[in-house]
Write a structure and sequence with these properties.
The chain contains 13 helices and twelve strands. It is an alpha/beta fold and about 350 residues long. The chain has three domains: about 45 residues, 434 Repressor (Amino-terminal Domain); about 140 residues, Response regulator (Rossmann fold); about 130 residues, 3-Layer(aba) Sandwich (Rossmann fold). The strands form two sheets. A six-stranded parallel beta sheet has the order 2-1-3-4-5-11, with helices on both faces. Helix 1 packs across helix 2 and helix 5 packs across helix 13. The longest helix is centred in the C-terminal third of the chain and has 18 residues. It is elongated and about 90 Å long. The chain starts with a helix and ends in an 11-residue tail after the last strand.
Length: about 350
């Protein structure tokens, strides 16, 4: 590997001059700069990124704060994986890279089962690595810790967690509007017994989708029934269990809005186990539009989130703060109802 010292010797300048050419070019004469750059190209020399970071106190690395402990299922969710790929692609197109941050086992052992037990440790890591900014993904109980990041002065973008600060903002989907559209679609098919399987109670997108479910019922002139609301966790098993509970009612629903596609697939399986046909006996709508939604039988009607848009918006907001120093307004991405085969008219209509 070619070093800065070798370039300096060939150019007849100091190592410090080579460093200034790549970090503070305005401080070097044009003739010297051109000579150093020419020799660097001929030798295929690239300045060490960590050394450049020390010089300018910032690197091309973006920290990803996301608790991927095996005891927390969030990292396995297909939507988050798709979102992460979109984020990585958007940052890469601007010359930045993602670095997954993790606290020590000691910090976790002091607070077993608690995510982001020591957010100050994360902030210390960002300082040591001279990271340019942070992307924050909630693993279930991280929202309070994110406030610490927002107050640190580091450029921060949270995904699906309302975050504010002089250099902090967030990106989320219009979850309430998407859920309301799904319910209105079911009502337009003649369904008046529409249930929902929600996400976790302390999850912001889940709460917004439940709000949208209630709004959609009201807009369709239907009365919300508390016994038609069961809580899930965004994963398939909770959708199966929740659907079984709903089907055990004396007057079971003829349609269900599940707050994730994973839970909707679980609902489909529960309906099949109960001897029901979808969509003839039960209509099902999901949320996310992950890959499996179009592969199950029947193909799932769902509310699609803009996964590439998530990554582009998050990267754009973060880079804006890095370059300009001020936090942009939060980004609310639109959703879209994708109608497939899992919805039909109310039985007997």
């Amino acid at each position: 590997m070619v070093t800065a010292r070798e370039v300096a010797q060939l150019c007849g300048v100091s190592v410090a001059t080579v460093s200034r050419v790549f970090n503070r070019p305005a401080t070097v004469s044009a003739s010297t700069r051109e000579r150093v750059e020419r020799v660097a190209r001929e030798l295929d020399f690239s300045p060490n990124e960590s050394a450049r970071a020390l010089s300018r106190q910032r690197s091309a690395m973006i920290g990803l704060v996301w608790d991927t402990d095996h005891r927390r299922p969030g990292w396995r969710h297909p939507f988050l994986q798709d979102l992460l790929l979109g984020l990585k692609s958007a940052l890469s197109s601007h010359g930045y890279h993602l670095l997954l941050l993790a606290t020590s086992d000691d910090a976790r052992s002091r607070n077993p089962g608690v995510s982001l037990a020591d957010p100050v440790a994360y902030i210390g890591m960002t300082r040591r690595h001279h990271l340019a900014g942070l992307v924050l993904i909630d693993s279930g109980t991280d929202a309070d810790a994110f406030t610490t990041f927002a107050q640190s002065g580091l450029p921060c973008v949270a995904l699906d967690v309302a975050l504010s600060g002089s250099r902090a903002t967030y990106v989320t989907s219009d979850n309430a509007a998407g859920a309301a559209e799904a319910v209105r679609h079911l009502a337009a098919l003649g369904h008046d017994r529409i249930a929902t399987i929600t996400g976790p109670r302390d999850n912001a997108p889940a709460a917004a989708r439940t709000e949208g479910y209630r709004r959609g019922l009201a807009e369709a002139g239907l009365v919300a029934r508390e016994d038609y609301v069961v809580t899930g966790d965004f994963y398939r098993e909770s959708g199966f269990v929740g659907m079984r509970r709903l089907l055990a009612r004396k007057d079971p629903p003829t349609a269900v809005f599940a707050a994730s596609d994973e839970m909707a697939v679980g609902a489909l399986l529960a309906a099949r186990a109960a001897g029901l046909r979808v969509p003839d006996d039960l209509a099902v709508v999901g949320f996310d539009d992950i890959e499996v939604a179009s592969l199950v039988d029947p193909a799932l009607t769902t509310v699609a989130q803009d996964k590439p848009g998530f990554g582009t918006a998050a990267a754009g907001a973060l880079l804006s703060m890095i370059e300009n120093g001020e936090a942009p307004e939060p980004v609310l991405l639109p959703t879209k109802l994708v109608v497939r085969d899992s919805c039909g008219a109310r039985p007997g209509r």
